[in-house]
Specification:
0% strand, elongated, 2 domains, Rna Polymerase Sigma Factor, Chain: A, Arc Repressor Mutant, subunit A, mainly alpha
């Protein structure tokens, strides 16, 4: 049984934006178990209830930003993801990443979340880096070009590309609160 009811939630949110208090109350009540499960899967911590409450407050404060012509699930997932990231940054906790049986990342499309959310998050992170560094990382890690191809495209040596990628990824890990010990052991 699925906890999410995207079509119903979208209707309730639209009604709430038109001032229907009963629909809004029903939406917040329905979101609670979904948010709790979302945070439990990603954060092995007793803080999941607090994060659920914080996210429900954020939904209340940001409900005017929801576009009623857009699907509801990507919007609520983005709100929850931002609250989770804020929490991890503040407390430096580990986040549990779900893997399927083959130890491959779970396809977010199968969760009803479009890849556009992940692409947007990568863009936001890369925008925190100097333009040249972000370009090199984007070419090598996102577009999956070889170090040699990135070297040819940028006019930098392969060694320089390696250093730029390494330092840039370290900056990004630090910016999202990944403890140094986790990636120094790699």
């Amino acid at each position: 049984m699925s906890l999410s009811q995207p079509d119903l939630w979208q209707q309730q949110m639209r009604a709430a934006q038109r001032g229907d208090a009963e629909a809004y109350r029903a939406l917040l009540t329905a979101l609670r178990p979904w948010l709790s499960a979302y945070f439990r899967r990603r954060l092995q911590s007793p803080d999941t209830e607090d994060l659920t409450q914080i996210t429900l407050v954020a939904v209340h404060e940001k409900r005017h930003t929801y576009d009623p012509t857009a699907p509801f699930m990507p919007w609520i997932a983005a709100v929850a993801r931002h609250k989770l990231i804020d929490h991890v940054r503040k407390y430096g906790r580990y986040v549990h990443v779900e893997l399927n049986e083959l130890n491959e990342p779970v396809d977010e499309a199968s969760l009803g979340l479009p890849a556009t959310i992940a692409r947007r998050d990568v863009q936001v992170l890369l925008s925190q880096l100097p333009v040249d560094q972000a370009r090199v990382i984007r070419l090598h890690k996102v577009e999956e070009l070889s170090l040699e191809d990135v070297s040819r495209l940028t006019g930098k040596s392969v060694a320089a590309v390696k250093v730029i990628v390494h330092r840039g990824l370290k900056k990004l890990r630090d910016s999202v609160g990944v403890p140094r010990k986790v990636y120094e052991d790699e």
